[in-house]
Amino acid sequence: MLESLKIRLFSGILVLVVIGAFRAAKTWKRSKKLTVDEFVSALKNAGIQLTENQIQQFEQYFDMLVTTNAHVNLTAITEKKDVYLKHFYDSLTVAQYEKDLQQTTGTLIDVGTGAGFPSLPLKIAFPNLQITMVDALQKRVKFLQDVVTTLGLTGVTIVHGRAEDIGQDPKYREQFDYATARAVARTSVLAEYTLPFVKIGGEFLVMKGSAAEQELADGQKALATLGGQLRESFEFTLPNGDTRYVQIVDKNKKTPKKYPRQAGTPSKKPIG
């Protein structure tokens, strides 16, 4: 009986040790951040090779981001290792699943770009990509213009305004091969901000976190109404273990003229 008790006690201790180790490993993974070298290495492992000049451009971008953020609200993430993981690396994951972005000279519009994510990291990594960034705040637009000039980027257009207004402008409406946005709105709303910009045969690239599947389900009517149809959905994790999704939506018919509706309406009354 004593021997049996010892065995049970040992088994209990072993279970606690294993659980503790698992939790510690999980905590470590979630707290993991990226140094510059780790960022470069992680991209290389994903098939994206940066040149020394591109690495330097990311460094300049980071310096300008944190300096400007001291007086303009650009991001809550300012620690260097966090920026490299949660902004730079995360922005480039879309090109790991839509690989044509890595080689194309096509056009991409980034709606509600904020501090330039994901479009500026994409432009730095893939210089042939032609990007247009849209943001409603003039101070952010000024920051983006300064970054583009300092980094010597070409093939970049920055538009000050709201997506609902610009999406009705013939200069931009259904003119782009790709449209994307990051941390702007749920999919049912985001579709109305983005799909009007995409030409037939183009793609709406949805970048989302753990709520992606539910947002996609809730946004099916919006996608169909606006001319989109889901082609593929990819689930993956960042190096720290955070769940991410990239969903590729094909634009297969024209967006009805009434969309996007006037500014503020899509968020208040989503389609569906």
Which helices and strands, and how do they pair?
Elements: H1 2-31, H2 36-45, H3 52-69, H4 80-92, H5 94-97, E1 107-111, H6 119-125, E2 130-135, H7 138-151, E3 156-160, H8 163-166, E4 176-181, H9 187-194, E5 198-208, H10 212-218, H11 220-226, E6 228-237, E7 243-251, H12 265-268
Parallel strand pairs: 1-2, 1-4, 2-3, 4-5
Antiparallel strand pairs: 5-7, 6-7
3D structure, described in words:
With 272 residues, the protein is α/β, with parallel strands linked by helices. 38% of the residues are buried. The longest helix is centred in the first third of the chain and has 30 residues, at 2-31. It has helices at residues 2-31, 36-45, 52-69, 80-92, 94-97, 119-125, 138-151, 163-166, 187-194, 212-218, 220-226, 265-268; strands at residues 107-111, 130-135, 156-160, 176-181, 198-208, 228-237, 243-251. Strand 4 (176-181), helix 9 (187-194) and strand 5 (198-208) form a beta-alpha-beta unit. The chain has twelve helices and seven strands. 46% of the residues lie in helices and 19% in strands. The protein has one domain: Vaccinia Virus protein VP39 (Rossmann fold, 3-Layer(aba) Sandwich). Residues 14-31 have low confidence and may be disordered. It has a seven-stranded mixed beta sheet with strand order 3-2-1-4-5-7-6, with helices on both faces.
